[in-house]
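Technical annex B. To support the medicinal chemistry partners, we prepared a structural model of the target in complex with glutamine, based solely on the information shown next.
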Amino acid sequence: MKKLLAALLCLALLSGGSAALADTIIMGTNAGFEPFEYIGEDGQPAGFDIEIAKLIAGDMGMELKIEDIYFDGLLAALDVGTIDFIMAAMTITEERKEAALFSTPYFDATQAVIVLEGYDGIKSIDDLLDKKIAVQDGTTGYFLVTETLNVSPSNVAAFKASTDTILELKSGRVDCIVIDSPVAENFLRAHDGMMIVEGLDMAVEEYGAAVKMGNDELLAAINATLEKIMADGTYAALIERFFGGEA
Ligand code: GLN
């Protein structure tokens, strides 16, 4: 039965014009967003999202291939079919829902503001308005700063890679970094001299896996695995492994 389902899914993927070979499914990610996706010691992508993607592929009876590309190119890659799905700590937003289909949410985060230790110039979100800010291109942090808050473009340093924001802050070229909270906490574990501004009233963001519009079969398979791992303890074990029990 499982084999039959897998075969049907293969057929569906092939007839959908997917880039994947019959037995391979391609996930797009941006492996510079630890602990969700990063390059492990063996040189291969690792992380919370990667583990979930492996389980999704496994349940489908398929081999997982990972394409590591810049975050702001992921939705376009999905659209042209070079990848079959995205797992990249991607927040489900109204705009993105016009470009892709999203799975059931699988993780909650907020934006966080990182400053150098001892800096007290930011006490509310509005205090960001006249600050120099480093962000990652195409992310919800980038949109918060450039669109919602409308910070002057000359005060925004946008980088393709999230980790490039750290040097910018440490060198004093910006006052702060705006980035997803779990990744901010991870930066702090790896780098001294920085802190997260407490008490900012940031909206909750939900992460989802994304598939191309119309690829309902793959979406159903992803949701089935998410539902299963949330019910059988696998998801909780991954949270423990990658976040030390906190999510
Ligand atoms: N969650 C943020 C977004 O969706 C950042 C994701 C990322 O940089 N990988 O825009």
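Notes passed to the chemistry partners:
Residues 30, 33, 71, 88-91, 136, 139-140, 162, 180, 205 surround glutamine (CB under 6 Å).
The mean pLDDT is 93.
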